[in-house]
Amino acid sequence: MSLTLRTISREEHLAYIRSLPAASHMQVPAWGDVKAEWRTESLGWFDTSGVCVGAGLVLYRQLPKVKRYLAYLPEGPVINWFAPNLEEWLRPMLAHLKKQGAFSVKMGPPVVIRRWNAAAIKAGIQNPEVKRLRDVEASELEPRAFEVSDKLRRMGWQQGEEEGAGFGDVQPRYVFQIPLKDRSLEDVHKGFNQLWRRNIKKAEKAGVEVVRGSYDDLPLWQELYEVTAVRDKFRPRPLAYFERMWKALNSEDPDRMRLYIAKHEGEAVAAATMLIVGGHVWYSYGASANHKREVRPSNAMQWRMLQDAQALGAHVYDLRGIGDSLEDTDHLFGLIQFKVGTGGEAAEYLGEWDFPLNKLLHKALDIYMSRR
User: Fold this and answer.
1) Does residue 55 contact residue 77 with C-beta atoms inside 8 Å?
2) Would you call 180 helix, strand, or coil by DSSP?
3) 280-288 sheet: strands from edge to edge
């Protein structure tokens, strides 16, 4: 297939995304408005008939004092990654980005390489010999993903550093997902472990109510989120970020971003944001108070969000990042333990890849990032 690549309008980009079963929320045009500190561009790939067959949202971050940029395609571009002529898709992209002043390109192919079901993960946690998810035999392998990886290396792309659970601007390599396609809510509920089912029932008995929030509820969300940040020792994003996110994403599609609030005796004790692109639904950010944890508001909220995702016809509910350590001493272990109780599966993506267009500037950026 002979392909051409050019800058496309937001409308063309969005039309292509809407023609797909799903795509990453970081590859919709409005995500560029969320990332206000980056310059953005939409790219389109076209076949010989002039039909759009791929798209990519590029975020450009300028180097201090120099008109050179890091070009970043988070969880993208949205192309046929298993195409035999992958180089013909990526080579023109690199040439275009170089012309735009990029000194380095970072991308995250949305390609899953391995999956582990809940039973395999639980067995791994219970086995003292097993330290990491990668030590557990995968329940499912995608052989074509290994071919993609080999092609990228041959083209000069370099594997990024091992990522954590996806906090900040680095995207997670390991995520946890609950498949919903061809499953009833009863199937999903049966997939929960005993503790999850008990906690959902406990929340119900305690009178926990989960409601949909609006833009006006974002300050309430922020209070809970900042409490969570102190407890879990991470730097919270400011309220302005979530307000911008809400306006940008819901201007593009009125149901792109949702807010859920769990209340007990009228008090908000947990909250979460949810993102929707086609059949893929993400639990994006979560927060909870330090008190009333015994009434299990987070379990109740996740169950409500799952029910709503299923009602939307979603084929997957994505709980986002997990670490790959299965040792209870690891600071991210609680995250995988909480998520594995849903009976879903862990998925390993190909991770993020870099292409240094200017090796000197790329190295300088590496040194700068390592000292931050």
Assistant:
1) yes
2) coil
3) 140-141, 112-117, 345-349, 174-179, 316-321, 280-288, 267-277, 257-264, 209-213
d(CA 102, CA 305) in angstroms, rounded, equals 40
Give the model's pLDDT for residue 363: 78
Domains of the chain and any CATH numbers: 4-108+352-371 (3.40.630.30), 113-140+173-349 (3.40.630.30)
Instruction: Give the per-residue pLDDT at 160.
Output: 72
pLDDT for 161 equals: 62
Torsion, CA 87, CA 93, CA 94, CA 100, rounded to 10? 170
Question: Is residue 230 pLDDT above 50, yes or no?
Answer: yes
Using one digit for the tens of pLDDT, what is the confidence trace for 17-55? 999 999 999 999 999 999 999 999 999 999 999 999 999
Cβ–Cβ < 8 Å for 107, 26: no
What pLDDT score does 332 carry? 87
285 has pLDDT over 50: yes
Distance (Å, rounded) from C-alpha 205 to C-alpha 219? 28
Instruction: DSSP for 81-146, please give it.
Output: TT-TTHHHHHHHHHHHHHHTTEEEEEE----EEEEEEHHHHHHHHH-TT--BGGGSPPSEE-HHHH
Position 28 scores a pLDDT of 98
pLDDT band at 371 (very low <50, low <70, confident <90, very high): low
Helices (H), the chain: 10-18, 31-34, 86-99, 118-126, 143-155, 185-191, 194-206, 218-232, 239-252, 297-311, 333-340, 359-371
Peptide bond into 77 cis (omega under 30): yes
DSSP state of 76: -
Q: Identify the three-state secondary structure at position 302.
A: helix
